[in-house]
Amino acid sequence: MKFTENAIMALRNLSGNKIRSLLTMLGVIIGVAAVIVMVALGEGAQRKVTENITAMGSNLVMVFPGRGNSRGGGFGGGEPLISSVLPVIKDASSHIKAIAPEVRRNFVVSFGDNSMQSSVIGCNLDYITLRNYQIAEGRFFDETDLNARSRVAVIGSYVAGELFHGIDPVGQYIKLGVFRYEIIGVLKEKGQSGFGNSDDLLLIPITTMQQRIMGNQQLSTVYIQADSAETVDKVYNQVYDALLEVFQDETKFNIRNQAEILETVQETSKTFTLLLGGIAAVSLLVGGIGIMNIMLVSVTERIKEIGLRKAIGATKWEILSMFLIEAVGLSVTGGLIGICLGWGVGAVVSRVTEWTTVISPESILLSFGFSIMVGLFFGGYPAYKAADLHPIEALRHE
Amino acid sequence: MIKTEALYKIYQMGDAEVRALDGVSLTIAEGEMVAIMGPSGSGKSTFMNTLGCLDQPTSGSYQLDGEETAQLSEKEKARLRNQKIGFVFQSFNLLPNLTALQNVELPLVYAGVPASKRQKIAMEAIERLGLGHRVHHKPKELSGGQQQRVAIARALVNRPKLLLADEPTGNLDSKSSREIMAVFQELHQNGITIVLVTHEEDIAAYTERIVRFTDGKVVDDRRIKQKVINEEVLV
Fold first, then answer.
1. 3-state secondary structure (DSSP) of residue B67
2. pLDDT of residue A71 exceeding 50
3. Residue contact A1–B154, C-beta within 8 A
4. Number of structural domains found in chain B
5. What's the CATH number where B179 sits?
6. In whole angstroms, what is the distance from residue A367 CA to residue A307 CA?
7. What pLDDT digit, counting tens, does each position of A318-360 carry?
């Protein structure tokens, strides 16, 4: 007998028991949908984080203060990073396109009755291009401001919204500590990043920050941009060697490659995706057990039918495959509905929560394949049981 | 057509040994119409099941149409049941979800007949039994007599040489029983070998030979004058 004949018979049996078939499929539907949605969320998070790290700027190497050794103490627990390393870094490699040191500190800033805490960042002129910021209105500070240690600030869009409530910030003065700073520009909105809100900041000249506010030469971070993606590793190694020569101790500074950070974050979110997918897969398993349960009931109910089919010439294999096709039919139909449902739920979730969801072809293939396996595996035992029945006992069964 | 020699079927029930068949040697020629009778537990059903290749005897030989069945594999027996034997049961055993026509088609499905031819063959078989107007009805919409006719159509659809009927009239009223026996007699006229199990003497009287079983043995085997029903049933 041909496979299609058997399939037609199996499907006829399933459609003869519509409600039962639907309820049985529900387990697989929910399981597959859960896998699709969870993996979509996980992959969405991964893509978002990757985008954000890339948005930090491209081809970056970052230098932070050392984590310090067991003695501890000081900022970052180790040796502070001071402005004198900048020439060392600059001379370390010929592939450096730009260097942007950053001094970052949280302060309360206020305008009139409105006040908020925000990151105040002292930086140089290269910072804005290196970090992929753009000026929405006004201007960025210039050489003159740097030299004069001017009290001017360029604010992120979030700060502009929080403090000014629709008033044009450019030309207004905000209070930072006891001094007033003139707003000379507003940055274009960049969106959420992996490291907090990248629009919640104020940029001021690094000279103003170090000499007027902090009173020292310490730096929080030095961003180094390589001239191409191919030279990032080279720059990283050369800067590392140069710094090691100066500090004589690799715990006294901390150097990171953007690609390295990206890898770490992606690794983390991959684990996260696997975890979510794994939890969802458990519900698919439960769906499979549901199929097994109902197939066993179905075999018991149809013992007489099995006996008759054997009497009129069905072989063991034909009975086995009929029941297997029924089980796989249930799980595959459930799987297909589950994929559509998961797709829909993913779309709704990403619309409601504004999270990115990514429905990858892999997750569809995976869950579809998994639902076939579930049908074969959990349908196998009931089908074997049916095929193995003795025709006489089956026919005699009441 | 059928030749059994020293058939034994022995069950072990706890400590007791039950001899369902205790050395049955019987020959049924092609075209015969035989009734098998006996009290319950006499082994007549076991004998029928053995003839139908549904059950394996403990020992002995059974030749069907000149072919020894003892060595056949499960698959070959299934083929044999499909091609050479037609079964009719007391409780009809029609599949409730299928229409009369689909039920009759079933042996053709297992015989591997393509779907296009199947319907035509099944239709002919069911029309022969006078149910052409009810082919698309489900079994529960048919009377007992009609259901048994559908079952007979199903048994005949592969043109078997042997028709085995286990109490075919057991669930029918006397009028339907007579009709079914008339069908069997006409089939007999057409040369099909028919073996039927019954415990009703008046049903057995419609055959031409009665074999009686007791305790797994043939105790009586005689030819009788067949009581012919003068009804044209088959179309």
1. strand
2. no
3. no
4. 1
5. 3.40.50.300
6. 36
7. 999 999 999 999 999 999 999 999 999 999 988 888 788 888 8
